[in-house]
Amino acid sequence: MLGYSCWAVCGCIMTDVYSPTTTANPQTSCLVVPSDTVGKARCGIKVVQVLLSFVAFVLEENVLRCSSCFALYFFEFVSCTAFLFTLLLLLLTTTTLQTRVGIKCWPKLDFVYTGVITVTFFVSSVIFATAHGDSSVEKAAVAFGFLASLMFFLDIGLFWKKNGFPFPGNRKCETDAAETEARPEAEKLNTLPDGE
Predict the structure, then answer these.
(1) Per UniProt, what is the membrane topology (predicted)?
(2) Which residue, 71, 50, 53, 72, is CA-closest to 61?
C-alpha cells in the first residue's frame, strides 16, 4: 500500500512538472482549421454545402420517371459535381494536403470554383423546378438544390467580405511574389578578366 501511494505521489509530481512545459506538436495534426485559405465559418458552410449537394443528388437519383429528362440529368450532373468537387476542395483546404498539391493561389481557385458552382447549381435548380413532375421526391430535390445554391452564395459573400476580390489587376498570386523576393539570384554576374 505504501509503495502504491508513493508511486501515485511521484506520478503526480512528474505530471505536474512535465505537463506545463510539454505541448503537442502542431505539425502532427492533419486537420488545419482555421487556415490561411478557409476559416471556421466558411469550413462549416462548406460542410453544409457537401451535405446539401449529396442529399439533392440522392433525391434526384430516386426519381422514377422524368417529364423532362434533360432537366433531370442536368440537375444530376450539377449536384454530383458540386458534391464531389466541394468535398475535394474541403479536404484540400482543411488538411495539410494543400501544401503538397502545388497550387499557390488557393483563394483564386476557391473563389472561381464557388462562383461557377453557385451559378450552375441555381440555374439547374430553376430548370428542374420548371420542368419536373409533381412527385414529392422531385420537389424535395429541387428544395435541396435551392438550399445548396443559397449556401454557395453565402460562401461567396463571406469570402468577399473577408478577402475582397481575389483578382486585383494582373498581379500574380501573393505567395508567388513572396517566393520570388525570397529566392536568391540564380545566375552570377559576368566577371571580366583582370586586364579588361
Answers:
(1) Multi-pass membrane protein
(2) 72
Burial zone of 107 (CB within 10 Å; 0-12 exposed, 13-18 middle, 19+ buried): buried
Query: Residue type for 114, please?
Result: T
Please classify residue 191 by burial: count the beta carbons closer than 10 Å to its beta carbon, then call 0-12 exposed, 13-18 middle and 19+ buried.
exposed
pLDDT (tens digit, 9 = 90+) per residue, 134-157? 888 989 999 999 999 999 999 999
C-alpha cell, 43:
469550413
- Alpha-carbon torsion, ordered 83, 89, 95, 100, to 10 deg: 140
Does 66 have pLDDT greater than 90?
A: no
pLDDT, mean over the chain: 77
> Using N-to-C axis directions, what is the helix angle for 69-94 and 136-163, rounded to 10°?
40
Specify whether the CB–CB gap between 79 and 121 falls below 8 A. yes
Task: Respond yes or no on whether the N-terminal peptide bond of residue 20 is cis (omega within 30° of 0).
Answer: no
CA-to-CA distance for 149 and 156, rounded, in angstroms? 11
Cα separation, 97 vs 91, in Å, equals 8
Q: Residue 174 corresponds to which amino acid?
A: E
**Residue at grid coordinates 468537387:** 85
3-state class of 81 per DSSP?
helix
- 3-class SS of residue 21: coil
| CA–CA separation, 73 and 21 (whole Å) | 59
Which cell is 29 given? 495534426
